[in-house]
Design brief:
The chain is α+β, with helices and mostly antiparallel strands and 240 residues long. It has 2 domains: 13-169, no CATH class; 185-240. It contains 4 helices and 9 strands, in the order ββαββαββββαβα. Strand 3 (64-69) and strand 4 form a beta hairpin.
Length: 240
């Protein structure tokens, strides 16, 4: 479990864009020397290292990956992945960004070399009522990964600091909006599936009717030919 040095909730967090080639109106100019990721995670969120934000734990998204310095106090860093991506899909350079960010926001870790940073999916974070503010456990230890950080890389930390944007979001509202969108997508997919199944049933029925009609037509032809043969034989007998 992880314990903050000085607990106390705050609603402040930082959004740090990991793709400088897609700036927003509030972002500074991008770094032309940094290669762009073709499918980058959209945002990294960092809590105040002195006052971990409990709402980020409570209102996290399934796409969120949580980072923390192992066995030391640090900020909680959340990497928000694109939908459909998992912890295994984190690009190496983004993993370095998150590890450097969380190390730099650790009171002790920022002064140390050769530390470990742990990270795991948000869904694996265990928070119970008897835990202190900022204290976290895990449901499944095997889902916790570790990345070693040899030392601070100033170029990475400086770039992240230049692209940071301070926000005061309504995390509950953002989570509800995200969940509503997902529900609507699933509803649309279900409707499309039902429509597809209905169309398949209609086509099967038409094929069955066509087969029955074809069989019926063959039966009628056979009956007609038999009647014609009988009529011809009767004509011959009469005339003889």
């Amino acid at each position: 479990m992880f314990h903050p040095d000085r607990p106390g909730p705050t609603r402040t967090n930082l959004a740090i864009r990991t793709d400088p080639d897609q700036p927003s109106d509030t972002d500074p100019p991008s770094d032309p020397d940094r290669p762009s990721d073709p499918d980058p995670p959209s945002v990294v969120m960092r809590t105040d290292p002195d006052r971990p934000n409990e709402d980020l734990i409570k209102y996290g998204w399934p796409e969120d990956i949580w980072f923390h310095v192992d066995k030391l106090s640090s900020a909680h860093v959340y990497l928000r992945l694109p939908k459909g991506k998992s912890i295994e899909d984190i690009p190496p350079e983004v993993l370095v960004d998150c590890a450097q960010l969380v190390k730099n926001n650790s009171i002790q870790g920022c002064k140390m070399n050769n530390i470990n940073v742990v990270y795991t999916p948000w869904a694996n974070l265990k928070k119970t009522g008897d835990m202190d503010v900022g204290q976290i456990g895990f449901f499944r230890q095997k889902e916790v990964k570790v990345v070693a950080v040899e030392k601070k890389v100033n170029e990475v930390v400086n770039r992240l600091e230049k692209t940071k944007v301070e926000r005061f979001p309504d995390l509950a509202a953002e989570k509800e909006s995200r969940d509503r969108e997902e529900r609507n997508e699933k509803k649309a997919q279900l409707q499309d599936q039902k429509k597809k199944e209905k169309e398949e049933q209609r086509m099967r029925k038409e094929m069955e009717e066509l087969k029955s009609y074809t069989a019926l037509m063959k039966g009628e032809n056979m009956t007609t030919n038999e009647v014609r043969t009988q009529n011809i034989n009767q004509y011959i007998l009469i005339n003889n």
